[in-house]
Amino acid sequence: MLGFLWTVVNPLVMLAVYAFVFGGIFQARWGIQGHVSSFVEMLYCGLIVYNIFAETLTRSPNAVIANPGYVKKVVFPLELLPICHLASALFNAVVSLILLCIFLVIHQQYIPITALLTPVILLPLILLTGGVAWLLASVGVFFRDLGQIIGVVMSIMLFLSPIFYPAAAAPALAAKLMYLNPLTYPIEETRNVLVLGILPNWIHWITSFCVSLLIGLFGLWAFQRARPAFADVI
Q1: How confident is the model at residue 28, as a pLDDT?
Q2: Of the candidates 41, 174, 197, the residue with the CA atom closest to the CA atom of residue 116
Q3: What are the CA-CA distances from residue 181 to residues 176, 186, 205 (Å)?
């Protein structure tokens, strides 16, 4: 009955739950003198980035399996199936970003000019997510338990990524390992440009872009290599 409004209701409900549990019950704050509203802003930034990655990858292993007609009966560019999930996740992210900007205007009375760099910051994440989605979609045809494994991995990454806390708050050794997490850079930089008004570290961005581009191309190559065998398995 709500239709399009579910795109708005779902993230708001989950944000309210996380904010109540961590900000209200556990009294989590962003910084020593941080207010709960600042915690909510930072938390929402992290959740937006995480959801792009998690929504796409949890659906990708079944992208080809769920559409056997496209494999057997119709000449269709199958590589678009995982990308459709990515596009859906990006649309939800755009809606969430609009809601966050409204919250920033209410709380801070302004949005930093650096917020215009948000799409640039998210570009490496999009390339990475697309590449991994292609890889999971191709492997998922032959290994049907992959979807269950990815669901568990995404649940673990929710708490191992700097979503509920800044990366700097982790112990020294954990902080170094945390930067191996592909979500750490986009989460931290999205907060910097969208909330704090800090320009990104362009050296890190270029490195992340190059690595993500290579992973994206590899994922597409692996998908196309496995594609001829899809019809035999499905």
Answers
A1: 66
A2: 197
A3: 10, 10, 15
Is the pLDDT reported for residue 34 higher than 70?
A: no
Q: What is the mean pLDDT of residues 186-197?
A: 93
Residue 115 clears pLDDT 90, i.e. is over it: yes
Gyration radius from the chain CA atoms: 19
CB atoms within 10 A of CB 202: 10
Burial 5-31 (b: 16+ CB within 10 A, else e): eeeeeebeeebeebbeebbeeeebebe
Structure pTM? Answer: 0.89
Helix segments in 115-201, DSSP class H:
118-142, 146-160, 172-178, 184-191
Using an 8 Å Cβ cutoff, are 47 and 131 in contact? no
- What's the token pair of residue 8? 């708005």
Q: Where are the domains of the chain?
A: 3-233
Q: Which of 86, 129, 150, 147 is nearest to 219 (CA)?
A: 129
- d(CA 124, CA 190) in angstroms, rounded, equals 12
Dihedral sign for Cα atoms in the order 11, 32, 111, 166: negative
6 in Cβ contact with 159 (< 8 Å): no
